[in-house]
Amino acid sequence: MPKNSKVTQREHSSEHVTESVADLLALEEPVDYKQSVLNVAGEAGGKQKAAEEELDAEDRPAWNSKLQYILAQIGFSVGLGNIWRFPYLCQKNGGGAYLVPYLVLLIIIGIPLFFLELAVGQRIRRGSIGVWHYVCPRLGGIGFSSCIVCLFVGLYYNVIIGWSIFYFFKSFQYPLPWSECPVIRNGTTTVLEAECEKSSATTYFWYREALDISDSISESGGLNWKMTLCLLVAWSIVGMAVVKGIQSSGKVMYFSSLFPYVVLACFLVRGLLLRGAIDGILHMFTPKLDKMLDPQVWREAATQVFFALGLGFGGVIAFSSYNKQDNNCHFDAALVSFINFFTSVLATLVVFAVLGFKANIMNEKCVVENAEKILGYLNTNVLSRDLIPPHVNFSHLTTKDYMEMYNVIMTVKEDRFSALGLNPCLLEDELDKSVQGTGLAFIAFTEAMTHFPASPFWSVMFFLMLINLGLGSMIGTMAGITTPIIDTFKVPKEMFTVGCCVFAFFVGLLFVQRSGNYFVTMFDDYSATLPLTVIVILENIAVAWIYGTKKFMQELTEMLGFRPYRFYFYMWKFVSPLCMAVLTTASIIQLGVTPPGYSAWIKEEAAERYLYFPNWAMALLIALIAVATLPIPVVFILRHFHLLSDGSNTLSVSYKKGRMMKDISNLEENDETRFILSKVPSEAPSPMPAHRSYLGPGSTSPLEAGGNPNGRYGSGYLLASTPESEL
Questions:
Q1: Tell me, what's the pLDDT at 117?
Q2: 3-class SS at 517?
Q3: pTM of the model
Q4: What is the 3-state secondary structure (H, E, C) of 86-98?
Q5: Would 597 disulfide with which of 180, 278, 612, 671, CB 3.0-4.6 Å?
Q6: Neighbouring C-beta atoms of residue 396, cutoff 10 Å
């Protein structure tokens, strides 16, 4: 500050004066506001803190448009689970009846908590670590746990993208390589591969050609070099998409978020034209009402809501933190949630239309095979021709004719019927065969596509859609890791992002061993579910019960310009925490009652067998869950006993573009009078007095007593292009 300033002259007076900061700055000589820095904590480090604030606050990257932001949120929330997990859950849990618990939980848990994450990210403009440190420093470990869960999910999720890349390149040939079993030549004779003959061509290609899978998780089998290369390609694509932050990923979202809807629309039209498509759709939407009362169905519906909207990962908060403060995040929450649900239903229609077609094909194949058995029994006089209805024509045997013949034989030969080995060939049995996860995409759906005209084209489109769906989710997952770390520790963005991708690739080699698919099951089904539930319930408690629902609603009113519905108040305060507490308890009980396991592919049997995880795998699983949740109690204990600074008494204020922005962390009551209230209500975390006491030259300002600033976001004033009258 210039020595001849009026403010400096008054410091040499012993007269006690009370002035506002606006009054003090009004007495100051004109300065260059773009270059000037007033360092509250002392001269040393002032320029550094000013530069940090310039980067961290007003120069924070922003979305180019609202459309880009919405597409990013859609790309993150709409992922591979919408394509294969939601249809499987519908099929398993009562068809159309499953939509009832899903919709109820989406309304009372999903949308309110999605709105909450959007709001806190936009309000505080930080990643998950900074947000939860701001809301409640003692629960600041929530942000670190979110980063760890994102890392776990990203490790195996990109492996699935690698599988899709492998199938994508294999689709450029006719016939498709999984349409027929390979032939083994032995001299002059040729025989089918035994493993393929016992199962099916698509099943064999998936387990043997693609994964080259071992018989159990204990048999590593070494690296699968084909999948290792595909994993490298997948991480290279993700790295290029996120290396520049939202400047690069935002542009990618225009294609990766919209292209899947084009493909789904094409598949829906094509699927509805297939014979048997209506059978599949009617089977899916026929409700089994008894399933609605099953607690397991509700638990699975709640878990699907969490994963579908990306709750607890930190990606939603990260994307929202790049928004303007006056953005209508309430509308965004409803819009993205509706689009997510619509996408799940659309994908389910496509899947069941195609599976209905496949079921009809397999049913006809069953009829032909069993009709040949009956002809053989007729030719060997095992069965009398009098048992065959006169109108039955074996050359053009319909399903109805076969069922009539089957029932007659079963009635007459009741005592010896089982020895005949005849199958009823019911369409419902084919439709009831539940195929989940990777089996739905890489076995059932690929088998159905082999019967399509121009099957390579549809295969290319399908796996390109999967790659884009996975890429959109991976961009959000990476944002959940990089944004909070970069915000908190100020590491170089490009270097840190590239380092994350390289590190994740090498750790991801675990999943491209011959036993890698079993580790994917461990991470996907168990390691992330329980930590995510804990994270989400603590997020809700931190805002609703610690920060205060009324205070949060008031800040939303100031930020949005209107008061959100009282519905959210009651959901955040009472309903959502109660529902999530029940869900957490149910998840823990489920793990205790049903030991975790996986479906292993046994080569000799050419069939799947459910195996429990061995002791070392159980220890690894428990360690993963512990690592993901450990930051929460550790940070709580460290800050409770003052072993780790909670950022109290730290303030960062930026004057720029006619606004004052500030970040205050855990202010004590006695300190509130020392800080400034912004003239823009939406920029102030809570109302505070606008004046402070100036104690004269003989006293030390409480802000200066701390010496060099060590707060989370630094302590200092940055003056930039704001006239004094604005203060």
A1: 95
A2: helix
A3: 0.80
A4: HHHHHHHCCHHHH
A5: 612
A6: 7
Q: Residue 107: CB partners within 8 Å, gap ≥ 6?
A: none
Length of the chain: 727
Asked if the 81-361+435-644 domain carries CATH number 3.30.160, the reply is: no
How many C-beta atoms surround the C-beta of residue 727 within 10 A?
19
Binding site for Na(+), by residue number, is: 75, 78, 82, 340, 469, 473
Alpha carbon distance 409, 388 (integer Å)? 8
Euclidean distance between CA atoms 520 and 510, whole angstroms: 9
Nearest to 601 by CA among 450, 447, 439, 429: 439
192 DSSP β-pair partners: 183
Q: Name the 3-class secondary structure at 289.
A: helix
Strands (E) located in 613-666: 651-656, 659-664
Check if the beta carbon of residue 312 is closer than 8 Å to that of residue 536: yes
Are the C-beta atoms of residues 484 and 314 closer than 8 Å to each other?
yes
Distance CA 69, CA 253 (A): 9
DSSP letter at 601? E
With contact defined as beta carbons under 8 Å apart, do 226 and 159 qualify? no
For residue 718, give the nearest of 11, 54, 29, 129 by alpha carbon: 54
Q: Tell me how far apart the alpha carbons of residues 154 and 148 are, in angstroms, rounded to a whole number.
A: 10
- DSSP conformation letters of 192-223: E-HHHHHS-HHHHIIIIIIS---SSTT----B
Reading the block at residue 331, the tokens are 């509308």
- Between residues 193 and 721, the one the model is more confident about: 193
Q: List the structure tokens of 307.
A: 């994963």
Burial annotation 691-726 (CB, 10 A radius, 16+ → b, else e) = ebebeeeeeeeebeebeebebbbbbbbbbbebebee
Exposure of 357 by Cβ count < 10 A (0-12 exposed, 13-18 middle, 19+ buried)? buried
Which residues have a Cβ under 8 Å from the Cβ of 479 and sit 6 or more positions away?
76, 242, 246, 249, 314, 315, 318, 319
122-171 per-position pLDDT tens digit: 999 999 999 999 999 999 999 999 999 999 999 999 999 999 999 999 99
Which residues are registered as beta bridge partners of 186?
189
User: Using CA atoms, how far apart are residues 353 and 345, in angstroms rounded to an integer?
Assistant: 12
Task: Count Cβ neighbours within 10 Å for each residue of 329-353 and write b for 16 or more, e otherwise.
Answer: bbebbeebbebbbebbbbbbbbbbb
Taking the C-alpha atoms of residue 717 and residue 712, their distance in angstroms, rounded to an integer, is: 15
Q: Angle formed by the axes of helices 246-256 and 259-272, to 10°? A: 10
The alpha carbon torsion through 535, 540, 542, 546 (nearest 10 deg) reads -150
Binding residues are 75, 78, 82, 340, 469, 473
Residue 623 CB neighbour total at 10 angstroms: 12
Mean pLDDT of 406-413: 83
What would the two tokens of residue 525 be? 């089904």
Hey, where are the domains in the chain?
Answer: 81-361+435-644, 362-432
Strands (E), 532-669: 597-602, 607-612, 651-656, 659-664
pLDDT-above-70 percentage for the chain: 80
Burial class (CB in 10 A: 0-12, 13-18, 19+), 581: middle
Side chain identity, residue 378: L
3-state secondary structure of 562: coil
Sign of CA dihedral 335, 340, 345, 347: positive
Residue 612 phi, psi (nearest 5): -85, 150
Mean pLDDT on 635-659: 63
DSSP per-residue letters across 349-416: HHHHHHHHHHHHHHHHHHHHHHHHHHHHHHHTTSS-GGGS-TT--GGG--HHHHHHHHHHHHHHTTTT
- CB neighbours (10 Å) of residue 556? 23
